[in-house]
Amino acid sequence: MKNILFLLVSVLIIVVSYSNNPVEEHSKLVRIDNNNFEFELPKDSKEIDGDLKNAMLQLNSNILYLAICDTNGSGNMFMVSKYVSENKVSIEEAFMQSVNTASNFNIDTLSNNFHLIDYKVYKVKGKTLRYKISAHFDNVNTIMYYFMKDDYSNELYEIKATARKNELPKVLNFMEEVALSVKIK
Q1: N or C: which end of the chain has fewer CB within 10 A?
Q2: DSSP H stretches of helix in 21-167
Q3: CB-based contact 111:134 (threshold 8 Å)
Q4: Which range of residues forms the domain containing residue 29?
Q5: What is the CA 68 to chain-centroid distance, rounded?
Q6: What pLDDT does residue 176 have?
Q7: What single string gives the DSSP state of each residue in 54-83?
Q8: Cβ neighbours of residue 117 under 8 Å, at least 6 residues apart?
Q9: pLDDT in tens, 30-45
């Protein structure tokens, strides 16, 4: 009986330990931009290199990192971009400019299939987060979170993930977890 009780208590301690810190136990730390920007992704995320990365860089030279992340059984594209301006601005100003001019970034033939569907600034766990969600065609959404060192800089970091329309809530939760792990040095 003592052995069974000891085993049950041990299992309970292990389960509680894992459930209290799920992000750290199931994630890997990624450092990019000369270790100035770091975040956590699921351990099974696969960084994209080679031809696909080169093709994406031709479309957007601001991309620093590309990966495929598993969000509960779906592979979603994840990327980090860095935008540099000549002048320093506040994160609020940069974010609102991004929100107010979102459709202007897509000036090719796809512009009729792109629109902003949501944006928000909110606090969670003591951290202010900013996101916007855009829709492409009828079935694909992009979720973007924005960051600046000390909320005032000429460098704006964007983390972005794609999601099918029906996956939006779970990918939004995934992105919030990643956003909460971001650190800028």
Answers
A1: N
A2: 22-25, 50-59, 91-100
A3: no
A4: 24-184
A5: 12
A6: 97
A7: HHHHHH-TTEEEEEEEESSS-EEEEEEEEE
A8: 133, 134, 135, 141
A9: 999 999 999 999 998 9
